[in-house]
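Problem 12. The chain below contains 356 residues. Write out its predicted structure in token notation.
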Amino acid sequence: MDSLPQATAEENSWAHNPLFQLAHRISDTINSLRLRMARKSHFVPATIAYTGYGSTTWVRVMARVLLSSRPLPGTRADREAKAGEQNLRGWRAFTSVPIPNRDVDIEIGGTTVRVKSDRGGMVDTVVPVQLEPGWHKVSIRASGTDTAHSLVFVIGAETEFGIVSDIDDTVMITALPRPFLALWNTFVLSERARMATPGMSVLMDRLRAGHPQAPIIYLSTGPWNAAPTLARFLSRNLYPAGPLLLTDWGLTQHRWFRSGREHKMMNLQRLAQEFPDVKWLLIGDNGQHDEEIYSTFSQAHPGNVAAIAIRQLSVSESVLAGGHSEDGDHSGSSVPWVYSPDGAGMVKQLDGLDIV
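Solution.
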């Protein structure tokens, strides 16, 4: 696999900015204080493993090392956690504290590597392997924690089609990015109160049935803290399993704030570089910036886009989301665009393109 894009000169200049370095030191100090408080509150170290993806010669493995609270053994919360039936308020996902610079052992297909978690407790690394296409189990263990298990989806060399889908207002009805409603949805609303977008799980099921070897990747600007909640939502609403590509809020190594647009664009470009022969169906909505991001990507990589499907927000959803973009004129695009307020309309139009 070719090397991925490195930090730009502008990003490197920020990294050497004294004020920026001070902000990082303050952030690290705050996290150290949070770690001390969490240990005093009997939080325990844990490895959270996320679903990954890759090819027959490498896999992208993602995980996070945290101090988190655990329900008392034998309690209802403990039984629900073991059964994956939690119904938690959103804020509980943000009580855990990342553990930086912790050794993490990854084992998959007989290959074992050791890496370190970054300053946010995150592990996002590529492991060389020799694997057959399909699902494979990966074991991840940070020092001082129990082993966590997850899956990676290996994409075969002959695969020519894949799906990338947004989450917010695409497969799940939310009220982003309006700040107060976003905070309510993220921190207060219980996870079982979140609603699936009508017809979208049927669309995904039809796509999976028609393309059983195709990867399905959920690309969102949501935080990694919400990954377990989002994974349970997708499973509970019968969406096909697939990797979540999320981000984090706050400082990065090179920027003051994370950019949602940049996060999506960088991951799309990465997929195009990793799988140059795959054409992706890009699914999003017209309430944020998906149209702009997908249009820019399709112009730069027309050979990597099969079609673009945009869910149209209702009038009430548009108000809650702070407006929506007008359906663009894509007559000059070499990539087909479809618009519909629900999954059923998308199925009909994509069927006409021989995609479902």
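Discussion. Residues 309 and 338 are 5 Å apart (CA to CA). Students who got a different answer should revisit the alignment rule from Section 12.3.
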